[in-house]
Write a structure and sequence with these properties.
5-stranded mixed sheet, Beta-Lactamase, 13 strands, alpha+beta
Length: about 425
Protein backbone atom coordinates (compact mmCIF):
# COMPACT_ATOMS: atom_id res chain seq x y z
CA UNK A 1 0.00 0.00 0.00
CA UNK A 2 2.77 2.37 0.95
CA UNK A 3 4.58 1.50 -2.29
CA UNK A 4 1.49 2.43 -4.34
CA UNK A 5 1.10 5.71 -2.44
CA UNK A 6 4.79 6.46 -2.97
CA UNK A 7 4.50 5.84 -6.70
CA UNK A 8 1.36 7.97 -6.82
CA UNK A 9 3.12 10.87 -5.07
CA UNK A 10 6.12 10.56 -7.38
CA UNK A 11 3.82 10.45 -10.43
CA UNK A 12 1.90 13.50 -9.25
CA UNK A 13 5.14 15.31 -8.52
CA UNK A 14 6.42 14.59 -12.04
CA UNK A 15 3.12 15.72 -13.55
CA UNK A 16 3.31 18.92 -11.52
CA UNK A 17 6.90 19.44 -12.62
CA UNK A 18 5.94 18.91 -16.28
CA UNK A 19 3.01 21.31 -15.87
CA UNK A 20 5.24 23.97 -14.33
CA UNK A 21 7.79 23.50 -17.10
CA UNK A 22 5.10 23.80 -19.78
CA UNK A 23 3.74 26.93 -18.13
CA UNK A 24 7.26 28.39 -18.01
CA UNK A 25 7.79 27.53 -21.68
CA UNK A 26 4.46 29.14 -22.58
CA UNK A 27 5.32 32.26 -20.55
CA UNK A 28 8.70 32.69 -22.24
CA UNK A 29 7.28 32.06 -25.73
CA UNK A 30 4.49 34.60 -25.13
CA UNK A 31 7.07 37.13 -23.94
CA UNK A 32 9.08 36.66 -27.14
CA UNK A 33 5.90 36.91 -29.24
CA UNK A 34 4.79 40.19 -27.64
CA UNK A 35 8.15 41.81 -28.20
CA UNK A 36 8.46 40.55 -31.78
CA UNK A 37 5.14 42.13 -32.72
CA UNK A 38 6.60 45.60 -32.13
CA UNK A 39 9.55 45.17 -34.50
CA UNK A 40 9.52 46.73 -37.96
CA UNK A 41 12.89 45.75 -39.48
CA UNK A 42 14.80 42.48 -39.86
CA UNK A 43 17.67 43.91 -37.84
CA UNK A 44 15.34 44.77 -34.95
CA UNK A 45 13.86 41.25 -35.03
CA UNK A 46 17.31 39.62 -34.87
CA UNK A 47 18.56 41.89 -32.09
CA UNK A 48 15.39 41.24 -30.07
CA UNK A 49 15.79 37.45 -30.37
CA UNK A 50 19.44 37.59 -29.32
CA UNK A 51 18.87 39.90 -26.35
CA UNK A 52 15.86 37.94 -25.07
CA UNK A 53 17.69 34.60 -25.34
CA UNK A 54 20.50 36.01 -23.23
CA UNK A 55 18.19 37.75 -20.75
CA UNK A 56 15.33 35.32 -20.29
CA UNK A 57 16.88 31.94 -21.19
CA UNK A 58 20.15 32.79 -19.45
CA UNK A 59 22.26 31.89 -22.48
CA UNK A 60 25.83 33.09 -22.43
CA UNK A 61 25.39 34.26 -26.01
CA UNK A 62 23.24 33.72 -29.07
CA UNK A 63 23.64 34.26 -32.81
CA UNK A 64 21.02 34.39 -35.58
CA UNK A 65 22.07 33.46 -39.11
CA UNK A 66 20.05 34.11 -42.24
CA UNK A 67 20.38 31.88 -45.29
CA UNK A 68 21.55 33.45 -48.53
CA UNK A 69 20.01 31.07 -51.03
CA UNK A 70 22.02 32.28 -54.01
CA UNK A 71 25.40 31.93 -52.31
CA UNK A 72 24.35 28.92 -50.19
CA UNK A 73 25.82 30.43 -47.03
CA UNK A 74 24.52 31.46 -43.60
CA UNK A 75 25.15 35.13 -42.84
CA UNK A 76 24.91 37.12 -39.63
CA UNK A 77 22.64 40.11 -40.38
CA UNK A 78 23.55 41.63 -36.99
CA UNK A 79 26.46 40.94 -34.64
CA UNK A 80 25.02 41.59 -31.17
CA UNK A 81 26.29 38.65 -29.15
CA UNK A 82 27.61 39.06 -25.62
CA UNK A 83 31.37 38.55 -25.53
CA UNK A 84 33.96 38.13 -22.81
CA UNK A 85 37.44 39.68 -23.31
CA UNK A 86 38.92 36.24 -23.92
CA UNK A 87 36.54 35.40 -26.76
CA UNK A 88 37.87 35.16 -30.25
CA UNK A 89 35.79 36.70 -33.02
CA UNK A 90 36.49 33.67 -35.18
CA UNK A 91 34.35 31.49 -32.86
CA UNK A 92 31.30 33.06 -34.51
CA UNK A 93 32.15 33.31 -38.18
CA UNK A 94 30.24 35.91 -40.16
CA UNK A 95 29.49 33.33 -42.84
CA UNK A 96 29.00 29.56 -42.66
CA UNK A 97 28.73 27.46 -45.86
CA UNK A 98 25.51 25.48 -46.05
CA UNK A 99 26.13 21.83 -45.07
CA UNK A 100 29.55 22.50 -43.49
CA UNK A 101 30.13 22.06 -39.76
CA UNK A 102 27.51 21.52 -37.08
CA UNK A 103 25.58 24.72 -37.80
CA UNK A 104 25.77 24.33 -41.58
CA UNK A 105 24.62 20.70 -41.34
CA UNK A 106 21.62 21.60 -39.20
CA UNK A 107 20.63 24.31 -41.67
CA UNK A 108 21.02 21.89 -44.58
CA UNK A 109 18.93 19.15 -42.96
CA UNK A 110 16.36 21.51 -41.47
CA UNK A 111 16.47 19.57 -38.20
CA UNK A 112 17.20 21.07 -34.78
CA UNK A 113 20.21 19.73 -32.93
CA UNK A 114 21.45 19.79 -29.34
CA UNK A 115 25.16 18.94 -29.09
CA UNK A 116 26.17 17.99 -25.55
CA UNK A 117 29.93 18.09 -26.24
CA UNK A 118 31.22 19.38 -29.56
CA UNK A 119 34.63 17.75 -29.04
CA UNK A 120 32.92 14.40 -29.58
CA UNK A 121 31.19 15.49 -32.78
CA UNK A 122 33.22 14.77 -35.94
CA UNK A 123 31.56 17.68 -37.76
CA UNK A 124 33.25 20.22 -35.52
CA UNK A 125 36.22 21.79 -37.31
CA UNK A 126 37.24 24.80 -35.19
CA UNK A 127 38.54 25.63 -31.73
CA UNK A 128 36.24 24.97 -28.78
CA UNK A 129 36.97 28.27 -27.03
CA UNK A 130 35.66 26.30 -24.02
CA UNK A 131 32.16 26.32 -25.50
CA UNK A 132 31.27 22.64 -25.38
CA UNK A 133 27.46 22.70 -25.54
CA UNK A 134 25.65 23.94 -28.62
CA UNK A 135 22.05 24.22 -29.75
CA UNK A 136 21.06 24.92 -33.35
CA UNK A 137 17.42 25.40 -34.35
CA UNK A 138 16.57 26.06 -38.02
CA UNK A 139 14.02 28.74 -38.88
CA UNK A 140 11.66 27.53 -41.60
CA UNK A 141 9.22 29.40 -43.83
CA UNK A 142 6.80 27.45 -46.03
CA UNK A 143 8.92 24.31 -45.72
CA UNK A 144 12.21 26.05 -46.57
CA UNK A 145 15.01 26.89 -44.13
CA UNK A 146 15.60 30.67 -44.04
CA UNK A 147 18.12 30.73 -41.18
CA UNK A 148 19.11 29.29 -37.80
CA UNK A 149 19.21 30.32 -34.15
CA UNK A 150 22.51 29.23 -32.67
CA UNK A 151 23.80 29.34 -29.08
CA UNK A 152 26.70 27.80 -27.19
CA UNK A 153 27.77 27.37 -23.56
CA UNK A 154 30.98 26.30 -21.77
CA UNK A 155 29.13 23.76 -19.62
CA UNK A 156 28.84 20.30 -21.16
CA UNK A 157 25.21 19.20 -21.66
CA UNK A 158 23.93 22.65 -20.68
CA UNK A 159 21.01 22.80 -23.10
CA UNK A 160 17.96 20.90 -21.93
CA UNK A 161 14.81 19.71 -23.75
CA UNK A 162 12.95 22.81 -22.53
CA UNK A 163 15.51 25.02 -24.34
CA UNK A 164 14.94 23.07 -27.54
CA UNK A 165 11.16 23.33 -27.18
CA UNK A 166 11.30 27.09 -26.50
CA UNK A 167 13.72 27.78 -29.36
CA UNK A 168 11.62 25.70 -31.74
CA UNK A 169 8.61 27.92 -31.06
CA UNK A 170 10.77 31.06 -31.24
CA UNK A 171 12.39 29.95 -34.51
CA UNK A 172 8.97 29.53 -36.11
CA UNK A 173 7.83 32.97 -34.93
CA UNK A 174 11.13 34.51 -35.96
CA UNK A 175 10.93 33.04 -39.47
CA UNK A 176 7.39 34.32 -39.95
CA UNK A 177 8.28 37.76 -38.57
CA UNK A 178 11.47 38.07 -40.63
CA UNK A 179 9.72 37.07 -43.86
CA UNK A 180 6.70 39.29 -43.24
CA UNK A 181 9.04 42.15 -42.33
CA UNK A 182 11.08 41.61 -45.50
CA UNK A 183 7.86 41.67 -47.53
CA UNK A 184 6.76 44.89 -45.80
CA UNK A 185 10.18 46.47 -46.35
CA UNK A 186 10.11 45.45 -50.02
CA UNK A 187 6.60 46.87 -50.41
CA UNK A 188 7.65 50.12 -48.73
CA UNK A 189 10.69 50.34 -50.99
CA UNK A 190 8.58 49.69 -54.09
CA UNK A 191 5.98 52.22 -52.91
CA UNK A 192 8.71 54.78 -52.26
CA UNK A 193 10.17 54.26 -55.73
CA UNK A 194 6.68 54.44 -57.24
CA UNK A 195 5.90 57.68 -55.40
CA UNK A 196 9.25 59.09 -56.48
CA UNK A 197 8.46 58.30 -60.11
CA UNK A 198 4.95 59.70 -59.73
CA UNK A 199 6.38 62.89 -58.24
CA UNK A 200 8.83 63.20 -61.09
CA UNK A 201 6.04 62.67 -63.64
CA UNK A 202 3.94 65.27 -61.83
CA UNK A 203 6.87 67.71 -61.92
CA UNK A 204 7.27 67.17 -65.66
CA UNK A 205 3.55 67.57 -66.29
CA UNK A 206 3.40 70.65 -64.05
CA UNK A 207 6.29 72.20 -65.94
CA UNK A 208 4.45 71.44 -69.17
CA UNK A 209 1.32 73.15 -67.88
CA UNK A 210 3.32 76.17 -66.72
CA UNK A 211 4.85 76.41 -70.18
CA UNK A 212 1.31 76.50 -71.58
CA UNK A 213 0.42 79.31 -69.20
CA UNK A 214 3.45 81.55 -69.72
CA UNK A 215 4.63 81.65 -73.37
CA UNK A 216 1.64 83.64 -74.66
CA UNK A 217 2.22 86.31 -72.07
CA UNK A 218 5.95 86.48 -72.80
CA UNK A 219 5.34 86.69 -76.55
CA UNK A 220 2.70 89.42 -76.13
CA UNK A 221 4.93 91.41 -73.78
CA UNK A 222 7.85 91.33 -76.21
CA UNK A 223 5.48 92.23 -79.06
CA UNK A 224 4.23 95.23 -77.07
CA UNK A 225 7.79 96.36 -76.34
CA UNK A 226 8.62 96.08 -80.03
CA UNK A 227 5.45 98.05 -80.91
CA UNK A 228 6.35 100.93 -78.55
CA UNK A 229 9.88 101.04 -79.96
CA UNK A 230 8.54 101.22 -83.53
CA UNK A 231 6.19 104.00 -82.43
CA UNK A 232 9.24 105.77 -80.95
CA UNK A 233 7.63 105.69 -77.51
CA UNK A 234 10.96 104.86 -75.90
CA UNK A 235 9.88 105.86 -72.40
CA UNK A 236 7.00 103.39 -72.31
CA UNK A 237 9.08 100.73 -74.04
CA UNK A 238 11.80 101.22 -71.40
CA UNK A 239 9.28 100.94 -68.53
CA UNK A 240 7.81 97.80 -70.03
CA UNK A 241 11.21 96.24 -70.66
CA UNK A 242 12.39 97.06 -67.11
CA UNK A 243 9.34 95.46 -65.51
CA UNK A 244 9.55 92.49 -67.87
CA UNK A 245 13.20 91.83 -66.93
CA UNK A 246 12.40 92.15 -63.21
CA UNK A 247 9.54 89.70 -63.58
CA UNK A 248 11.73 87.19 -65.42
CA UNK A 249 14.36 87.48 -62.70
CA UNK A 250 11.75 86.96 -59.98
CA UNK A 251 10.28 83.95 -61.80
CA UNK A 252 13.73 82.38 -62.17
CA UNK A 253 14.46 83.04 -58.50
CA UNK A 254 11.16 81.49 -57.37
CA UNK A 255 11.72 78.48 -59.63
CA UNK A 256 14.81 77.50 -57.61
CA UNK A 257 12.72 76.31 -54.65
CA UNK A 258 9.74 74.05 -54.04
CA UNK A 259 8.36 76.66 -51.63
CA UNK A 260 8.66 80.45 -51.84
CA UNK A 261 7.67 83.20 -49.46
CA UNK A 262 4.32 84.87 -50.07
CA UNK A 263 6.25 88.13 -50.36
CA UNK A 264 8.25 86.89 -53.37
CA UNK A 265 5.19 85.37 -55.02
CA UNK A 266 3.24 88.61 -54.62
CA UNK A 267 6.19 90.60 -55.99
CA UNK A 268 6.09 88.48 -59.14
CA UNK A 269 2.32 88.87 -59.28
CA UNK A 270 2.56 92.66 -58.93
CA UNK A 271 5.06 92.91 -61.79
CA UNK A 272 2.91 90.67 -63.95
CA UNK A 273 -0.27 92.75 -63.45
CA UNK A 274 1.61 96.02 -64.04
CA UNK A 275 2.95 94.61 -67.31
CA UNK A 276 -0.52 93.57 -68.43
CA UNK A 277 -1.84 97.00 -67.45
CA UNK A 278 0.80 98.83 -69.51
CA UNK A 279 0.50 96.43 -72.42
CA UNK A 280 -3.28 96.94 -72.57
CA UNK A 281 -2.93 100.73 -72.60
CA UNK A 282 -4.12 101.06 -68.99
CA UNK A 283 -7.45 99.55 -69.92
CA UNK A 284 -8.11 98.66 -66.27
CA UNK A 285 -7.09 99.84 -62.84
CA UNK A 286 -6.02 97.45 -60.14
CA UNK A 287 -5.33 97.23 -56.43
CA UNK A 288 -3.50 94.76 -54.20
CA UNK A 289 -4.78 94.66 -50.63
CA UNK A 290 -2.86 92.59 -48.08
CA UNK A 291 -4.13 92.16 -44.53
CA UNK A 292 -1.87 93.69 -41.89
CA UNK A 293 -2.19 90.47 -39.87
CA UNK A 294 -0.61 88.29 -42.53
CA UNK A 295 3.14 87.62 -42.40
CA UNK A 296 4.50 87.75 -45.94
CA UNK A 297 7.93 86.42 -44.99
CA UNK A 298 6.93 83.32 -43.01
CA UNK A 299 4.01 82.06 -45.10
CA UNK A 300 5.31 79.83 -47.89
CA UNK A 301 3.48 78.52 -50.93
CA UNK A 302 4.46 76.60 -54.07
CA UNK A 303 5.79 78.93 -56.82
CA UNK A 304 3.64 79.97 -59.81
CA UNK A 305 0.45 79.04 -57.98
CA UNK A 306 -1.31 82.45 -58.06
CA UNK A 307 -0.46 83.95 -61.45
CA UNK A 308 -2.68 81.63 -63.58
CA UNK A 309 -5.81 82.76 -61.72
CA UNK A 310 -4.98 86.45 -62.10
CA UNK A 311 -4.14 85.86 -65.76
CA UNK A 312 -7.55 84.23 -66.23
CA UNK A 313 -9.32 87.26 -64.75
CA UNK A 314 -7.40 89.70 -66.97
CA UNK A 315 -7.49 87.77 -70.24
CA UNK A 316 -10.98 86.29 -70.01
CA UNK A 317 -12.90 88.90 -68.02
CA UNK A 318 -11.27 92.30 -68.57
CA UNK A 319 -9.42 92.56 -71.87
CA UNK A 320 -12.24 91.28 -74.13
CA UNK A 321 -14.65 93.97 -72.80
CA UNK A 322 -15.11 97.30 -74.62
CA UNK A 323 -16.06 99.55 -71.70
CA UNK A 324 -14.56 102.01 -69.25
CA UNK A 325 -13.89 101.83 -65.51
CA UNK A 326 -12.71 98.23 -65.56
CA UNK A 327 -11.11 97.21 -62.30
CA UNK A 328 -9.24 94.32 -60.75
CA UNK A 329 -8.76 93.81 -57.02
CA UNK A 330 -6.56 91.19 -55.35
CA UNK A 331 -7.10 90.64 -51.63
CA UNK A 332 -4.93 88.49 -49.35
CA UNK A 333 -5.74 87.52 -45.79
CA UNK A 334 -5.46 84.65 -43.34
CA UNK A 335 -8.18 82.67 -41.60
CA UNK A 336 -6.72 80.58 -38.78
CA UNK A 337 -4.11 78.46 -40.61
CA UNK A 338 -5.57 79.00 -44.08
CA UNK A 339 -4.24 81.48 -46.64
CA UNK A 340 -6.96 83.11 -48.75
CA UNK A 341 -6.55 85.06 -51.99
CA UNK A 342 -9.59 86.63 -53.64
CA UNK A 343 -9.44 88.03 -57.19
CA UNK A 344 -12.38 90.30 -58.04
CA UNK A 345 -13.18 92.12 -61.27
CA UNK A 346 -16.11 93.89 -62.88
CA UNK A 347 -15.54 92.65 -66.40
CA UNK A 348 -17.35 89.98 -68.35
CA UNK A 349 -16.90 87.88 -71.49
CA UNK A 350 -18.63 90.52 -73.60
CA UNK A 351 -20.62 90.17 -76.77
CA UNK A 352 -18.71 88.96 -79.80
CA UNK A 353 -19.43 89.85 -83.41
CA UNK A 354 -20.42 86.40 -84.62
CA UNK A 355 -21.48 82.97 -83.46
CA UNK A 356 -18.14 81.53 -84.58
CA UNK A 357 -16.25 84.11 -82.50
CA UNK A 358 -18.43 83.29 -79.49
CA UNK A 359 -17.78 79.57 -79.88
CA UNK A 360 -14.05 80.18 -80.25
CA UNK A 361 -14.00 82.34 -77.10
CA UNK A 362 -15.92 79.67 -75.17
CA UNK A 363 -13.51 76.96 -76.32
CA UNK A 364 -10.45 78.99 -75.31
CA UNK A 365 -12.04 79.80 -71.96
CA UNK A 366 -12.84 76.13 -71.32
CA UNK A 367 -9.28 75.09 -72.20
CA UNK A 368 -7.87 77.74 -69.88
CA UNK A 369 -10.14 76.63 -67.02
CA UNK A 370 -9.11 72.99 -67.59
CA UNK A 371 -5.43 73.91 -67.51
CA UNK A 372 -5.91 75.85 -64.25
CA UNK A 373 -7.74 72.96 -62.61
CA UNK A 374 -5.04 70.47 -63.69
CA UNK A 375 -2.40 72.92 -62.50
CA UNK A 376 -4.03 73.04 -59.05
CA UNK A 377 -4.49 69.27 -58.82
CA UNK A 378 -0.86 68.62 -59.76
CA UNK A 379 0.41 71.16 -57.22
CA UNK A 380 -1.65 69.46 -54.50
CA UNK A 381 -0.30 66.06 -55.53
CA UNK A 382 3.28 67.20 -55.91
CA UNK A 383 3.57 69.27 -52.72
CA UNK A 384 1.02 67.52 -50.53
CA UNK A 385 -1.02 70.71 -50.20
CA UNK A 386 -4.77 71.20 -50.00
CA UNK A 387 -5.25 74.12 -52.37
CA UNK A 388 -8.78 74.79 -53.60
CA UNK A 389 -10.17 77.18 -56.20
CA UNK A 390 -13.71 78.49 -56.46
CA UNK A 391 -14.62 80.52 -59.56
CA UNK A 392 -17.80 82.56 -59.66
CA UNK A 393 -18.55 84.49 -62.80
CA UNK A 394 -21.33 87.01 -63.23
CA UNK A 395 -23.63 87.43 -66.18
CA UNK A 396 -22.61 88.67 -69.60
CA UNK A 397 -24.76 91.81 -69.52
CA UNK A 398 -22.36 94.53 -70.67
CA UNK A 399 -24.48 97.32 -69.21
CA UNK A 400 -24.99 95.69 -65.79
CA UNK A 401 -22.41 92.96 -65.27
CA UNK A 402 -22.37 91.04 -62.03
CA UNK A 403 -19.08 90.82 -60.18
CA UNK A 404 -16.67 87.98 -60.84
CA UNK A 405 -14.51 86.37 -58.16
CA UNK A 406 -11.84 83.71 -58.02
CA UNK A 407 -11.17 82.49 -54.47
CA UNK A 408 -8.02 80.50 -53.78
CA UNK A 409 -7.48 78.85 -50.37
CA UNK A 410 -4.66 76.69 -49.02
CA UNK A 411 -3.66 75.38 -45.63
CA UNK A 412 -0.47 77.13 -44.55
CA UNK A 413 2.32 74.57 -43.99
CA UNK A 414 4.74 77.04 -42.44
CA UNK A 415 3.77 79.95 -40.19
Amino acid sequence: MRTIQKHTIISQSKQLQVLRQNLEIERVVNLFARKLMEKRTVEDVVVDIIENCITHLHFLDCVVYQLNEKQKVLIQPVDKRRKTPEESHSFYPEQIPLGIGIVGSAAFSGKAEVVKDITKDNRFTGQTQERYSQIIVPMSWKGKVVGVIYASHPKINFFRPKHLKILTHIALMCAIKIKSTEIEQTNRRIEKQFLKRQKRLAEIKLLSLQMQLNPHFMFNSLTSINYFILQQNTELASRLLTKFSRLMRQILENAQSDWVSLKNELNALRLYVELEQIRSGNKFIWRLQVSEYINLDTIRIPPFILQPFVQHAIWQRLLPVQKENLSLQITCYQEDNTFVLVISDNGNAGKTSSLNDSEAQTEIKTQRMTIMQEHMQLINKLYGTSGQVEIREGNDDIENPAGNTITFTMKIPFI
